[in-house]
Queue: 2 jobs
Job 1
Amino acid sequence: MDFGEVIARGTPQEIQTNPKVIEAYLGKGQPMLLEVEDLNVYYGAIHALQGISFSVDQGEIVTLIGANGAGKSTTLRTSPVCSARAGGRAVPR
Ligand SMILES: Nc1ncnc2c1ncn2[C@@H]1O[C@H](COP(=O)(O)OP(=O)(O)OP(=O)(O)O)[C@@H](O)[C@H]1O
Ligand SMILES: [Mg+2]
């Protein structure tokens, strides 16, 4: 079902692989909104982020959890703007 409409019928296997069902649950193959690859951030000699990689797809809700001082704020501050100097790559799209 999708918005009250039956979009597929069949065996569980047929439903699982039906493109309309996949699209209804996961959305169309939208481009990545943000892709961070091997991000390293230093505060002087402190290597705060060590090779962080993640991606955020359109429509996704991503949470970042970790202990105090793990690097959550640093990740949020630097991911969209990380530079070659920081030793990584962020590709906002
Ligand atoms: N301006 C700064 N100068 C030096 N070190 C810093 C600075 N900001 C953060 N750090 C260090 O970098 C590491 C990551 O800190 P960050 O604030 O990103 O962690 P956090 O996961 O957001 O912590 P919290 O849960 O306390 O908010 C910690 O070891 C912290 O002490
Ligand atoms: Mg924080």
Job 2
Amino acid sequence: MAYDIPLNSLENQWMPFTDNKDFKNNPRLITSAKEMYMTSHRGTKILDGSSGLFCSPAGHCHPKIIEAVNKQIQKNTYTSPFGSGHPESFKLAEKITKITPDEMNHVFFVNSGSEAIDTAIKIVMSYFSSKNENRYRFVSRERAYHGVNIGGLSLSGMANNRKSFPLVIPNVVHLRHTWTGEELNKKGQPSKGVELANDLERFANNYGGESIAACFVEPVAGSTGTLVPPVGYLKRLREICNKYGILLVFDEVITGFGRMGTNFAADKFDVKPDIMTMAKALTNGSMPMGAVCVHDKIYNLITENAIPGSIEFFHGYTYSGHPCSCAAGIASLNIYEEEDLFERANNLSDYFLEALFTLSDHDLVKDVRGIGLMGGVELHLRNKAGEIGSEFQKKLFWNGLHVKFTSDTGIIAPMFIFEKQHIDELIEKFRKTLDQFGK
Ligand SMILES: Cc1ncc(COP(=O)(O)O)c(C=O)c1O
């Protein structure tokens, strides 16, 4: 049903990452969603071209998830996770470790990607403290997004996210990002740029490898517009980490759970990290949840070296492993498995990328990038960064397509349940909107 919300009822919520004044003057509300479509408060049918925020590959309002959460909420809505537990969180941890790389068998639950990153930072600190190694430096990368908590913000390589928050954790150094601009409109991995990974070795030489605790990277940088790693880049990072005893952390918050057509990006690029952060598709976006999965050597060292009879890791959240989120997580992983959705994503990838790259011929488009079921369409700058992106996103919405924009790049992430016709619809609506902006 189409209905209008009185404007004054929007004032009380301070919206995240939103131009509040503009939104409240021109609201774009979703009043219902089913599978790959959403309905706006004006009744517009909108194709979800970014799986929400890259989190709902199995589609909105999946009946099996609704049923699982509904059952759980009637059985047990809350158990303290500190020193007690409930069966669902152990079951979910076991299910996750069935699809993570070998020897990554321990899962710490949190409530978001940002919490996963801050937790991973603390796990790294705890690991080296248990080893009696004084490593206090972290390596991240320009154009990285690792959430918004202070740890993730410190790792962030996005200037706007940092500029009004001057107090971040010290001793973070940033690798150069991997978008060189040399290979525009390149499908898949750039062939050039592996040497950018050697920045890590330069840091090791400059600061002393023994001072560096961990290197955090998104295998494919998502929020800055799908920056695909050059061929050999992640392997090179792994080699340098091995050489200097640095832990390699993959932030798989977007790339995890099939987005690359494999379980995790670690599998796609055949590189094993020591720690993986995850969130989003873990519950198909239906309930807030994140997780940190660690290599056995990390869990074993921290738990074995602790004072007997005491807590080993002084960290956790009231809602770590919340029963309803766990029920949603178990149901989501079951759906991915039963419906073979990662394989489906893999099979759809070629068609998606082929269609996506047709947009590169448009005058407004500066670059198209993509791998798996993840793509970036970067528009030419108009006046100032973000101006055209923000206007474009709004127009797209009323043209019946949701795409998340960061600055002037649209980040496209089809649901794994899309048929080819949905890819066609996505590209048609994107092109139509480009045409409305001018050739
Ligand atoms: C790679 C990455 N890490 C961390 C986060 C933060 O996740 P959340 O918004 O759930 O805190 C995001 C969110 O988009 C992300 O893309």
